[in-house]
Structure formats: structure tokens, C-alpha cells
Amino acid sequence: MNRKTELIERVRTGLGKKQLIAIAVTLALGIAGGAAILGTAAKKPAAEGEEHGHGHEESAAHADNEHHGTKGADDHAEADGHQDAEHHEPAKGAHGGQLLSQDGGQVEVLLTEEDGEPRMKLWLFQDGKPVAPAGAQATAELKRPNGQVASVLFEVRKDALVSKMAIAEPHVFDGTVDIKTGAGARRYTFSQSEGVIAMSAAQMKAAGVSLDTAGAATVSSTLQLPGEIRFNEDRTAHVVPRVAGVVEQVPVVLGQAVKQGQVLAVISSATVSDQRSELQAAQKRLALARTTYDREKKLFEEKISPEQDVLQAEQAWREAEIAVANARQKLQAVGAEISGGSLNRYELRAPFDGVVVEKHITLGEQVREDAQVFTLSDLRTVWAQISVPAQALPQVQLGRQVTIRSTSFEQQAQGKVAYVGSLIGEQTRTALARVVVVNPDMTWRPGLFVNVEVSAGTSAAAVTVASDAVQTYEGKSVVFLHTPAGFMAQPVTVGRTDAKRAEIVQGLQAGSRYAATGAFVIKAEAGKSSASHEH
């Protein structure tokens, strides 16, 4: 017996029957488990190979092609999770345009600068190879969001077909291109959305953008005339001393608001001194004359003096009264008080509430009686002076309601025409009119240029938008139309306008959706992206 047989025999004799049964069971279970694992591993690559059309073990391990650098088949599971526009953007051609394909034929469409204008260019291909445009015929139809449809004809230029007409902005439209060649006729469809400002509903709400529909409305016709704010001459005073003298005090400054009767200046005047002296002397003579009359009357009643003496005393009394009244009125005529402390003190006072708008007086200055030392104006009301051409005079009538707008800042006021001149200027060929403007906050300052809008009646307009919707963008009047892709700047021709509605003469159709409020925010966003203009 060899050594191996001897070892087995020792194990058999050393182990009992129960131990041998346990070992046998353990070995059987181990063999069965290993067979199950091997069977599962064998089935898995076979099943994956059937799903992808092959049974190669390596392909089964890399079925998504991720490690092979290529895309999977059309039914690849990844494609099912990416059904978005990113996978459907038009292919780019060799010239940077959209490459459209149909039945083996291709056309590349590009908007580009040609002869200084935006034009459409087409390059033709067959099975991926360039085709000379000679003999080919091409037409295009462009439908814009505002409903306008434009037909485009093409001509051969070198290796491409170029549109005969410039493609007007905005370059947002759905288009079709019809190509006729020796190989047959084909139609291609494409879209262009250059310069569209995309905004979500949340962004629109945050920016205060609201939509409205263009439609018919009544618009007020207005006549706009140039004007200038002037002092209300009915409430403006050129203050003069009325007596000569030397300035002793000037308690007010330029621009100060003063009340009626407030002292503007104190002047030492010899004229006022003489007048006060004359008044005092007349008052003394009046008192003496009255005493003399009373005495003569008493003597006459006692039959001591004749009646003639009484009459003479009464006449002297009446003359003294006249002299006193005359002296008082002389002082009142120059605005001097009857008793002002010093005989020569003369106080120059404000004739009404107003503002010191001019001051030509200084302390110690010798002034004449006719010198204009202050200009005082009540600026709570001012005049808007208008230059009215002869042909506009029928619309500018007394009592007509007008709107005054500042040319320097955002401010407006309402008023009525208070005066229309009867004469036409020889040089200007205009008549002067004025409007009284209430000015409680002193906003309307004399010298300010304004525009005065006069209502000329109302009339119906077929297409109108909110006045705030019209914006000036790149030197043009535009309305921002709302499209599925976002907002686009639509050039428009504006007709009559008022504070609420603006008539659109050209560029927009009734029913178009547009940005009624917040258009200036969209304009700002459009300005940021203008640098990315393709052509």
C-alpha cells in the first residue's frame, strides 16, 4: 500500500460514521451552489447580447457604447431620456448657416451682410457634395410673428443664390425655401429667431412685464406747441422807493419769500422828513384854528363879537383841515408812515406775498426815487407763454384745456388757455398765447422751456397699443411683441398718441400680443445682447 492509500485508511478508521455523513452533505451543498452561480453568469451576457443584436462578451459588458466613443443604436436607452431641443437644433453648414436636408438634397441658409444690407444666401448640395447654382431657381416665404408674410426671390452670385431684396429686421420668422434644379423640386422649412429676448413667467412678473393685445381704440388728437414759463405779470411787482435817499438797512436777501407789508429796506430821505414836518405844522395850525373858532363862536353867542369874526374863524379852521389832509396824502402817496419815529425814516414794504427774484440795492447806497430796487413775484402761479402758428389758431381757443410738459424733466401740469393774441408777429408769423399754471411747489420756474399739448378732438384708430409700450430702440420706434420664443423688437410707425393709447399706423396687426408694461426692462435686456448680432 502506498503512502496516499495509507493516509486515507487512517482517516476512515479515525472518523466515525456520523462524521463521514456530515462531510459528504457539506461537499454536496458546495457543489450545488457553485453550479448555480456559474449558470447565472452564463445566462446574463447572452441576454444582453440579444438586446443589442450580438452576443460578444465584451459588447455585453459595454452595451451603452460609452467606453467605445460611439453612440448607440436608434433604440439606445440614453436617447429616450434626452428628447429635448438640444438634440434637434439645425445642423450647421460649412458657411455657418442652417443646413437643411430632404431626399438626399441639402441647402444651407444663412443671413449675412451683402452690399451693406442683411440678405439671405443659399448654398446647394446633393448627397453632401456642392452643386453649382447656375440654372437653379429659388424662392422663399417668410412669415413673421406679427402676421406679415414676405416673398423673397434669389439670383445667382458666384457659388450661391442671394436674395434680391434686403431682409428687414427683426429677423424672427418661420420660413420655407423652394428649390428647383435638374434633380427636381424640393421644399425646405426653417426658423430664424435672431435677437429674441427669452423671459420666463417668473422673470416677467419680477420685472413688472404684463401683456396686452393690440386692438382698436379711441385716441385723442393733440397739437404740440413750444412754450416757455414766464412770471405771472399780474402778480409781479417792480418795487421802487418813490423818494430819493440813502439806504440804511436791507433786511431781505435775493430769493427770500416775504409776506405782504414786510420791510424790504429802510431809507433815510430828506423828502419824507419835509413831508412829515409839513404834516406836523398843519396839525398845529388846525388845532389853533379850531380853538380860535370855538372862542369866536362863544363870543358871538354872548353877543360880544360880530358874526363876521365867527365866519372868518370857521374858514381858517376848514383850511387848516384841508392842509392836514393834504400833508397826510403826500406821505401816503410815497408809502411813508404818518409817524415813523425819525422824521426822515422811510420803510420800503412788500406789496403782497411773494419771492424776491431781483435785488438792486445795497447798504449805504444813494438811490433815486425811480430806481428799480426789487422785483417781487408771487410764484404760486406762473404763465406758460406759447407761440401759436397761424394754421393752429383754430385749435387754441380761450378756455381750452391743455397739458404742459417740461422738456428738462418728467413733470406735467394741467391748465386752460387764458389769452390768445390778436396779432401775428411779422418775423415769427406766430401769435402769442398764455396759460395760467398753478405752481404750489415752485416746480415751474420762469425761463423753463415746455411743450404745451392742446387737445384737437378724438377719433377711432384700428390698431393701438398702450403709450408706454412704444420704446425707442436703435433709433427706431418699436413695440416688443411676445412670441413663443420670447420678446422681439418690432419696428412700428406711430400715429396719434395721447396719455393712454398710441396709434400704430404700420408694423403691427390687431390681435398681436405685446409687452404693455415693463417694456423698458425688455429694452435694457435687448441692449445687452445687441453685441451678439449675427450679421
Query: What's the shape?
Result: rod-shaped
How many angstroms does the end-to-end distance come to?
A: 101 Å
What's the architecture of the largest domain, going by CATH? Beta Barrel
Low-confidence runs: 1-5, 10-18, 20-25, 34-87
Instruction: Predict the CATH topology of the largest domain.
Output: Elongation Factor Tu (Ef-tu), domain 3
Give structural notes.
The protein is an alpha+beta fold and 535 residues long. It folds into five domains: 1-89, no CATH class; 92-193, Immunoglobulin-like (Sandwich); 221-230 and 380-532, Elongation Factor Tu (Ef-tu), domain 3 (Beta Barrel); 233-240 and 248-268 and 349-378, Beta Barrel (OB fold (Dihydrolipoamide Acetyltransferase, E2P)), CATH 2.40.50.100; 270-343. Helix content is 25%, strand content 39%. The protein contains eight helices and 31 strands. Strands 1, 2, 3, 4, 5, 6, 7, 8, 9 and 10 form a ten-stranded antiparallel beta sheet that branches. A six-stranded antiparallel barrel has the order 12-21-24-23-22-25. A four-stranded antiparallel beta sheet has the order 13-20-18-15, with no helix packed on it. Helix 6 (270-301) packs antiparallel against helix 7. Residues 1-5, 10-18, 20-25 and 34-87 have low confidence and may be disordered.
What is this entry, summarized?
The protein contains eight helices and 31 strands.
